[in-house]
Amino acid sequence: MMAAIFTVSTFVATLFCVFLMASATEVVELTDSNFEHLTQASTGATTGDWLVAFSAPWCGHCKHLVPTWEEVAMELKGEVNVAKVDAIANSNLASRFSIRAFPMLKFFHQGSMYDYRGPRNAEQLLEFARGGYKNMPSAPVPVPPTFLGKIKLQLDEVTEGLQALCYQIVREVQAVYKGERPIDTPFIVMMTVIFLFFGVIVLSFAALFTGPVAPNGKRAKQSTKKNN
């Protein structure tokens, strides 16, 4: 009886160890808050070289890369740090490194960064990380944005969105003018929402650059008289 219990316990313990080993990962997860602290990509790189995958949760190619990325991380353990970044959840990093496609793989080495554009298999990735990157063009690692820099990045994103919206409005109006689409309810609703949106923006800026309004509805004037 004791022998059977011992055998079962040993089997369970073995399964538990196998599970822990299987779930262990050498891939570091980087975020907006810890990227520069861990990588020191633009401030000295004393933590070594980093091979980083920028991905998106909905990206099929990113999901397909996961097992290969884990394999590469295990092979490069002690040589190169291997990491991943959710570029959707960490928009500051996505803006900082101009991430526009997924997955985007970058190698960081002593203040410079190199884009990987080859086949996404373990053999080629290992060759790239172990020196192949030297044959690729490099670019300086952009420094982390300051507070004003972050505001500028956000304004740039808003500007891009407004430009896309304006282009869409022009296309819709042209389609109506050419008779390619009717002036139906969806079109009227869309145009109403757009004009209300821009109206709110205009009124907001008007409120910022005008003075306060008195209770009687007249614009309050600042007194220029000096006290005696």
TrEMBL record:
Database matches in Pfam families: Thioredoxin
Gene3D superfamilies registered for this protein in UniProt? Glutaredoxin (3.40.30.10)
Species of origin: Nannochloropsis salina CCMP1776
Protein name listed in UniProt: Thioredoxin domain-containing protein
Q: Does the keyword Transmembrane helix apply?
A: yes
Xref: PROSITE patterns? THIOREDOXIN_1, THIOREDOXIN_2
Alphabetical keyword list = Membrane, Signal, Transmembrane, Transmembrane helix
Question: Which residue intervals define the domain Thioredoxin in the entry?
Answer: 19-134
Q: Where is the signal peptide?
A: 1-24
Report TM segments: 187-209
